Q: What sequence folds into this?
């Protein structure tokens, strides 16, 4: 029973819960047991409050028994990336700086989950303050890829991706600033989606780069991802960058194929540096669309070659400012020894942040400094506008753009950590969606010859999540990619 | 060094806390409350991870009103910038402010200097920002940890920057007085300097002319921490003298190598400015647009409606009082300077009695003296404008004398401490009860005079013997018998009778 429940998707679990075949406590306990069994090897979670999870699940059971009205995710466990605030829970951001921090308030998305009677399962690992593509910059642990424990699950939302992949949670939330949902989804072989900038409130998401950050869902299938997005999307007056636009019911139309679908393919995305297995799987996926009657067109994103450069000005600049608040004065870590105020700041931030975070703070501080601001920040914003215009033009021609998520499948832990530039290039296909603010989704499209998952990325015009999800679902149904479970038995400490 | 003519060149930066119900970027109550530190806070103004600001539209509206009253151009597009620096009272490590695109620029405020000269001080810009919290240091000298109170953090703060148009310490004070009055009239701030709702920095230097036709200036000094208008005046005065002395001693001038703007503090106890911050700590604030806040746009209609909705400003009132009501410049200024409620009181009184000059005399003397003596606001004075207007009306129409009016005013003040406000009807009732009506009935007067003469043969004798002052007691007796008698008339009649006798 227990292993069956952790193999079951969110929508199917909901049906089992509604018919009373299983209780919320059963579902919660099954996932907690799964975490107990395999997370020693995967290390996807930073903290799990078992008692609280069971108590929350029991409360949903009680409501169901007494006939109280229940939310749409009633009893469903959802894992939360540890940079999304939930009252009473830690929000470490995988940083020493916030190791002891407990949020006194709920993020908007957490409020939505609670209102939907979801059960908050635990806090998942990430690169420190979401800065990284491998989970290796976590101050606490490097999460491992359930498909190959020697490899990274990707990042920064690697913990959430690995948890969903390994059956420890049917759903999870992550955040995506330059690919932090889509890249780990691709590495782990699950569905991960970055919505349009402004579709989901950022209130309560610990800011990395405010103009790029967006919360999004992880699931094992498109349907479940659509369900979770439907719950968390929508306007929030507490985030003035959240957009007041109605949220369509994605599930209602999900299974309707798109007639006359025009799919754009960007030649630059299939150039040098793309792993041949990845290229083959992605081309196969595009062929699936072709077989479904979609029109495949080449589109040009001429400025996308500047994406990484622009991103590494804009994101660190905003980060250098957003992370200034971690100064040891009001909350969080403070160095034990220091000599005066300035030294307290220096000692606290010197010891509280890891290398990658410090690297980006320095990059951003430099780019915003007087004398350099125009040459770097202002210029980057101009190029960002051009990138956005490229997408606007492209989406005049096509409905979705299809391509690889990453140039290569999951890399080995340690392989890139000492080569920041190579690590940054991992996000070369995902960053443009953040810079342009458009929605993007990564969905599994097969495996490499070495049995590593490959992801297909689809992007659509702003607020076209409905079309994006339908296009993704078309592929998922037609390709009928068999649901494969990662060989966790091979993990040290893993037992299935 | 030869004597040089010097012109002080002074620019002011005024920070004004706005009177909004809630803070500028969150829903916390905006109230001075040092006794319960950190109680008016939330994730947003504490700068907790993940919290986001939302602009308070009321704060922005009050800012627009103020800028419009300062004759500023209002921008159709304005944005928020982060000013980044580390300080314990700044929880986010940056202050949300406005840098290159403030919501308003290019205004002016007309001030009258103490010599009566009218001067137009240009306003360079007005922008809106959030106030920081307050650091509380151990003042016992025992070196305990400093503490931070964030109740103030996020209070809407207007920064008003003048062009360097101010030419003397007294003029600086006049500007601040007039600005204070304007802000009070607009009801945008309580301008309470003790509570820090209005704070001022002054940039001071001297332009010198040695007669050789060369333009030289002393290094610019910014004096910070000025928390009273007198303090601004005294600090500017001190700086002018100090800079002149320093120039004579060292010859250092603006533009010399190594000469940079200096920041000095003001020691209100010793009445001196002191060097505060070295240039090695000069900050690069790394301003950049706040990605959490959308820019604010205004339509021409919205700008027009702000301007159209402006209430009458102090300067306009002064000129209306002079031109329409015929008041002296002095009276008009005294009345307007007391604030809008006082001026309204005057206008109501004047309207009821129909004599603006009389009304002005009463409010600037009797009323002002009373509220000052009692230490109350005009609204707390027991005598309403209706009652005073009715009272002055009775003087103007000759029903009672000015002296009786004063007596009545005193009575109303005393009585009203027990009773509610006087209605105009009670004025007439009091006049009758007290017999204060001017008596023109010659029969009653004549019999009272006859009675007085008969009752005081000694006084009559003395008067007739040439002792003029002997008439006093006789007048007094008549006045006691006939309430409301006009003393002058009584004297004339008495002299006539005594001469006849």
A:
């Amino acid at each position: 029973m227990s292993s069956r429940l952790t193999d079951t998707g969110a929508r199917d679990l909901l049906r089992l819960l509604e018919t009373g075949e299983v209780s919320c406590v059963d579902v919660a306990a099954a996932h907690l047991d799964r975490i107990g069994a395999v997370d020693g090897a995967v290390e996807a979670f930073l903290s799990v409050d078992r008692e609280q999870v069971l108590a929350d699940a029991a409360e949903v059971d009680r409501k169901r028994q007494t006939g109280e009205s229940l939310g749409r995710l009633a009893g469903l466990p959802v894992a939360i990336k540890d940079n999304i605030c939930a009252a009473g829970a830690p929000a470490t951001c995988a940083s020493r700086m916030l190791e002891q921090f407990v949020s006194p308030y709920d993020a908007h998305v957490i409020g939505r989950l609670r209102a939907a009677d979801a059960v908050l399962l635990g806090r998942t690992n990430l690169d420190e303050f979401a800065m990284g593509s491998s989970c290796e910059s976590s101050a606490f642990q490097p999460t491992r890829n359930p498909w190959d424990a020697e490899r990274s699950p990707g990042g920064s939302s690697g913990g959430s991706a690995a948890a969903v992949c390994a059956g420890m949670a049917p759903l999870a939330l992550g955040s995506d600033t330059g690919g932090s949902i889509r890249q780990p989804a691709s590495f782990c072989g699950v569905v991960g989606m970055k919505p349009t900038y402004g579709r989901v409130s950022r209130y309560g998401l610990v800011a990395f780069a405010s103009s790029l950050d967006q919360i999004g869902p992880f699931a094992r299938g498109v349907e479940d991802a659509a369900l979770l997005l439907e719950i968390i999307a929508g306007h929030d007056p507490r985030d003035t960058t959240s957009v007041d636009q109605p949220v369509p019911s994605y599930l209602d139309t999900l299974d309707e194929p798109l007639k006359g679908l025009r799919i754009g393919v960007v030649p630059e995305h299939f150039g040098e540096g793309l792993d041949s297995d990845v290229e083959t799987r992605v081309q196969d996926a595009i062929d699936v669309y072709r077989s479904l009657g979609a029109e495949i067109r080449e589109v040009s994103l001429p400025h996308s070659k500047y994406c990484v450069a622009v991103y590494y000005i804009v994101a660190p600049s905003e980060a250098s400012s957003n992370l200034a608040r971690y100064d040891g004065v009001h909350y969080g870590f403070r160095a034990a020894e220091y000599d005066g105020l300035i030294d307290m700041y220096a000692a606290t931030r010197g010891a509280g942040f890891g290398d990658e975070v410090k690297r980006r703070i320095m990059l951003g501080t430099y780019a915003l400094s007087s004398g350099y601001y125009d040459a770097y920040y202002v210029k980057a914003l101009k190029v960002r506008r051009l990138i956005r215009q490229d997408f606007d033009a492209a989406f005049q021609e096509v409905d979705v753009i299809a391509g690889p998520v990453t140039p290569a499948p999951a890399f080995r832990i340690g392989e890139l950590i000492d080569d920041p530039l190579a690590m940054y290039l991992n996000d070369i296909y995902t960053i443009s969606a953040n810079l342009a603010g458009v929605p993007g989704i990564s969905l599994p499209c097969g495996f490499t010859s070495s049995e590593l998952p490959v992801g297909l990325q689809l992007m659509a015009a702003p607020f076209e999540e409905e079309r994006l999800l339908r296009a993704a679902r078309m592929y998922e149904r037609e390709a009928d990619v068999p649901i494969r479970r990662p060989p966790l038995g091979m993990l040290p400490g893993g037992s299935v | 060094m030869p004597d040089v003519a010097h012109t002080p060149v002074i620019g002011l930066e005024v920070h004004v806390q706005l009177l909004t119900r809630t803070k500028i970027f969150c829903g916390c109550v905006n109230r001075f409350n040092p006794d319960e530190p950190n109680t008016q806070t939330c994730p947003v103004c504490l700068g907790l991870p993940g919290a986001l600001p939302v602009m308070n539209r009321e704060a922005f509206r009050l800012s627009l009103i103020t800028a419009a009253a300062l004759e500023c151009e209002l921008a159709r597009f304005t944005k928020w910038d982060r000013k980044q620096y580390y300080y314990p009272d700044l929880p986010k490590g940056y202050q949300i402010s406005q840098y290159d695109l403030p919501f308003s620029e290019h205004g002016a405020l007309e001030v009258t200097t103490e010599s009566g000269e009218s001067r137009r001080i240009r306003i360079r810009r007005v922008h809106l920002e959030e106030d920081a919290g307050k650091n509380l240091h151990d003042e016992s000298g025992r070196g305990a940890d400093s503490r931070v109170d964030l109740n103030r953090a996020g209070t809407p703060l207007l920064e008003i920057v003048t062009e360097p148009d101010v030419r003397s310490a007294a003029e600086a004070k006049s500007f601040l007085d007039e600005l204070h009055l304007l802000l009070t009239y607009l009801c945008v701030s309580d301008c309470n300097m003790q509570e820090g709702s209005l704070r001022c920095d002054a940039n001071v230097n001297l332009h010198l002319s040695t007669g050789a036709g060369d333009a030289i200036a002393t290094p610019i000094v910014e004096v910070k921490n000025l928390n009273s208008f007198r303090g601004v005046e005294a600090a500017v005065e001190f700086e002018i003298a100090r800079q002149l002395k320093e120039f004579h001693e060292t010859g250092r001038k603006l533009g010399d190598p190594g000469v940079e703007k200096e920041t000095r503090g003001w020691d209100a106890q010793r009445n001196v400015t002191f060097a505060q911050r070295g240039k090695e700590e000069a900050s690069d604030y790394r301003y950049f647009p706040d990605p959490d806040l959308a820019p604010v746009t205004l339509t021409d209609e919205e700008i027009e409606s702000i301007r159209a909705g402006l209430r009458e400003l102090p300067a306009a009132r002064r000129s209306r009082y002079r031109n329409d009501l015929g008041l002296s410049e002095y009276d008009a200024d005294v009345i307007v300077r007391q604030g809008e409620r006082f001026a309204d009181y005057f206008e109501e009184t004047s309207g009821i009695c129909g004599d603006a000059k009389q009304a002005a005399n009463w409010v600037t003397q009797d009323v002002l003296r009373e509220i000052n003596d009692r230490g109350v606001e005009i609204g707390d004075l027991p005598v309403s404008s209706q009652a005073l207007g009715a009272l002055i009306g009775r003087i103007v129409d000759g029903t009672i004398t000015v002296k009786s009016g004063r007596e009545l005013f005193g009575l109303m003040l005393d009585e009203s401490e027990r009773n509610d406000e006087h209605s105009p009807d009670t004025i007439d009732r009091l006049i009758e009860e007290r017999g204060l009506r001017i008596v023109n009935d010659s029969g009653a007067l004549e019999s009272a005079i006859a009675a007085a003469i008969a009752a005081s043969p000694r006084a009559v004798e003395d008067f007739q013997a040439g002792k003029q002052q002997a008439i006093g007691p006789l007048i007094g007796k008549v006045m006691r018998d006939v309430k409301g008698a006009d003393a002058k008339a009584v004297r004339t009649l008495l002299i006539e009778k005594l001469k006849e006798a």
About this structure: Chain B touches chain A at residues 43, 46-55, 82, 84, 86, 88, 91-94, 148, 150, 284, 286, 288, 291-294 (CB under 8 Å). Chain B has three domains: 5-300, 312-434, 442-500.
